[in-house]
Amino acid sequence: MTDEILELMDARRKEKNKEKIRDMTRQIRQKCREAKTREVENICDRIHDLEKRNETRKMYLMTKRLAPKSNMKSANCVLAKNGKHLTKEKERKQRWKEYMEELHGPKRPGITHVDVQNSAENR
Known about the structure:
two-stranded antiparallel sheet, 5 helices
């Protein structure tokens, strides 16, 4: 954030008129976007300089700073009815069963239940 943005935020805090507050908020958002764009461009310029100097390790670290962070652990997580994360496989399977029964009902007409485990053992 630049000093100009911080000054605008201070002025907005002191302002009483809702119209002016709304306008100042828009200005602050615009200035923040511009500042972020300038920062990303500066990082990109530094990455290009590192590339020219063949400093791949530093280049990688700078690139990593720009990349969005992802959380791979969330792929194995299911939410329970109460909003808690279920991470154990047995709990996840049970929750999926409950969800499918809620979605389609416990027994769908015209579809017979097949016990997959017993039919596989009989083969």
